[in-house]
Design brief:
The protein is an alpha+beta fold. The chain folds into 4 domains: 133 residues, wza like domain (wza like fold, 2-Layer Sandwich); 199 residues, Outer membrane lipoprotein wza domain like (Outer membrane lipoprotein wza fold like), CATH 3.10.560; 68 residues, Roll (Outer membrane lipoprotein wza fold like); 33 residues. A 5-stranded mixed β-sheet has the order 7-6-10-8-9, with helices on one face. A 5-stranded mixed β-sheet has the order 12-11-15-13-14. The termini are far apart. About 7% of the residues have low confidence.
Length: 574
């Protein structure tokens, strides 16, 4: 750091002769400038905090105001920039000049004014001015935004950026969790609507607010903001920079309003409010370009009041090549679409595990079946274990990001399941596996054509080896892994695990298949496979009060039956 300061001093000293040749500068002026240079090196470079800009400003329209930080460099007399803060009365203090007013000046006007001042005062000098940091403004954003509130925003923000800032989900600090959950549900519902309408060329709902934002200025004036038009016409009047005391009112969506729309093979199909003066060229631009499958020879605008259907000539950027004209309320542009999807006759399947040639293979869709694929992979090895073989298939249904229960709720909306059923159904839905219903033993040992399923693109065939063990757990005397023996039942494995322990309910014991995790009763004709599990549950814990209630019910039933028998006997013996 010391070495850096020494180098800076040497550079400044070397430039003193050049400075002394500038008219109007004396030796005393040179010493003053040297001290100014050192002060700038120590303070100015360390005082600025990095702030998000939000927008790249246009110096022809950005009005300088109190709190803006300018940076001034005067060559050759001031090589280090000097920070200038605009005072509350719209003045700044220029080195060796003094106070000047910059009220109602844009950034470019300020640059020109300062440059002219120094050229007039110091012949041969040149002044450079930049906006180093935009001032902070208090802006009230209300209406149809996620977080209506009073914000402190940089004056470099335009109205569109300020609205986006108020729609950030991260600005919900302090909001009750119930409200946040409700908001997430609304967003998920809109996301689902967008998914359903995606690639249809039709918007999921009209957009009203973006062309009807109201901006109230602190001087009592107001502006109607058209953010859609501002994007394409580069019109700062329709998306101005925020100022001190601004109020931005974002309107809520309306059901009934004069509409114009662009639909079909466009990047952004949209329905917007009609504004008098809207032309076909502008309505085309609202589509943000065409999609890859757009048919540019099939583009029409429909004018409902004139009852006209006019063909348009456009390019792929939605520039109008034919004559421009105003559109009517209710007008719509439809961009035609060419069939671009071509169904493939072939797909790819992956074969993993214990086959002679594992890897990926090309299949013919609608023809290649499981047995064909295994033959292509060279057949099974000696270590392959068919009871655990399975096929995994891709699931193209998109899951909800904010509520994983959405699919379950949608499916159960019109169900007649009871409460106990719904709990189990929710578990089944939550942990369902993307497996193909098949059985390798039936296919390759019993030659079943029912289980010899057709394969689809992206299928994965897994052929594991024999794990050689069965896990027995729960209420058994010696739970753990038992060595697998072919052709044995559940009772045999429970016996190998020491038998049923005290407190077990043997009639509720089940086999859990290793391939599908399905629970089966351990009948005499049901054999256990390697990789299966056997679970023996205990007697359910039951509170004493419940037991007493059950015994009381049983006692009342016995008493009722006794009275009934006694009555019948009395009648018969009369």
């Amino acid at each position: 750091m010391k070495l850096l300061k020494i180098i800076i001093l040497l550079i400044i000293a070397a430039s003193l002769n050049l400075m002394s040749q500038v008219p109007g500068l004396s030796g005393a002026d040179t010493k003053e400038l040297l001290q100014m240079e050192m002060d700038n090196q120590i303070s100015d470079g360390m005082s600025l905090e990095a702030m998000p800009v939000g927008n790249a400003i246009n110096p022809d329209f950005y009005l300088i105001g109190p709190g803006d930080m300018l940076s001034l460099q005067i060559f050759p007399i001031q090589t280090s920039p000097k920070n200038l803060i605009v005072s509350p009365d719209y003045t700044i203090l220029l080195p060796r000049v003094g106070e000047i007013s910059i009220k109602d000046m844009t950034l470019n006007e300020v640059k020109d004014t300062i440059s002219q001042i120094y050229r007039a005062k110091m012949s041969g000098s040149k002044a450079f001015v930049i906006l180093k940091e935009a001032r902070k403004c208090i802006v009230n954003i209300k209406g149809n935004v996620l977080s209506p509130a009073i914000y402190t925003l940089p004056s470099s923000y335009q109205v569109s950026t300020a609205v986006s800032f108020a729609n950030q989900l991260g600005k919900l600090s302090g909001v009750p969790i119930v409200a946040v959950e409700a908001l997430l549900q609304v967003q998920e519902k809109q996301r689902e609507a967008d998914r359903l309408f995606s690639e249809t060329g039709i918007p999921s709902k009209p957009v009203y607010w973006s062309r009807n934002v109201t901006l109230l200025r602190n001087d009592g004036s107001s502006l109607q903001i058209d953010l859609e038009r501002a994007v394409f016409e580069n019109d700062i009047k329709n998306d101005p920079y925020v100022k001190e005391g601004d109020q931005i009112i974002v309107p809520f969506d309306q059901q009934y309003f004069n509409q114009i729309s662009i639909t079909g093979a466009v990047t952004r199909p949209i329905v917007l409010p009609h504004k008098y003066g809207d032309k076909v060229s502008l309505l085309l631009k609202f589509g943000y370009g065409v999609t890859d499958d757009a048919d540019l020879d099939n583009v029409f605008v429909f004018l409902p009041e004139s009852k006209k259907r006019i063909k348009l000539q456009i390019d792929r950027k939605l520039n109008l090549l034919s004559e421009d004209f105003e559109v009517e309320p209710g007008s719509t542009i439809i961009v035609g679409q060419r069939l671009s999807y071509k169904k493939s006759d072939f797909g790819t399947v992956s074969v993993k595990g214990f086959v002679n040639s594992p890897g990926n293979y090309l299949i013919k869709l609608g023809e290649t079946r499981l047995r064909d694929m295994v033959e292509m992979a060279g057949g099974f090895t000696q270590d392959a274990y068919l009871p655990l073989g399975r096929i995994i298939r891709r699931d193209y249904k998109q899951q909800s990001l904010s509520d994983p229960r959405q699919e379950t709720y949608e499916t159960m909306q019109y169900s007649d399941l009871k409460m106990d059923d719904t709990v189990r159904y929710y578990i089944d839905m939550k942990y369902k596996q993307p497996l193909v219903s098949t059985d390798f033993i039936e296919v390759f040992e019993n030659n079943s054509e029912i289980h010899n399923v057709l394969l689809y693109d992206g299928d994965v065939i897994e052929v594991p080896n024999n794990p050689g063990k069965v896990r027995v757990f729960g209420q058994v005397k010696n739970p753990g892994f038992v060595e697998f023996q072919p052709g044995k039942t559940m009772a045999w494995y429970v016996e190998r695990a020491g038998g049923y322990a005290e407190g077990s309910q043997s009639f509720r014991a089940r086999i859990i298949r290793g391939r599908t995790q399905v629970w089966l009763e351990g009948a005499e004709d049901v054999f256990v496979y390697a990789g299966d599990q056997i679970y023996v549950p205990r007697v359910p814990d039951e509170p004493t009060t419940i037991k007493l209630q059950r015994y009381a019910v049983l006692a009342s039933i016995v008493a009722t039956v006794g009275v009934l028998i006694n009555t019948i006997a009395f009648i018969l013996l009369r």
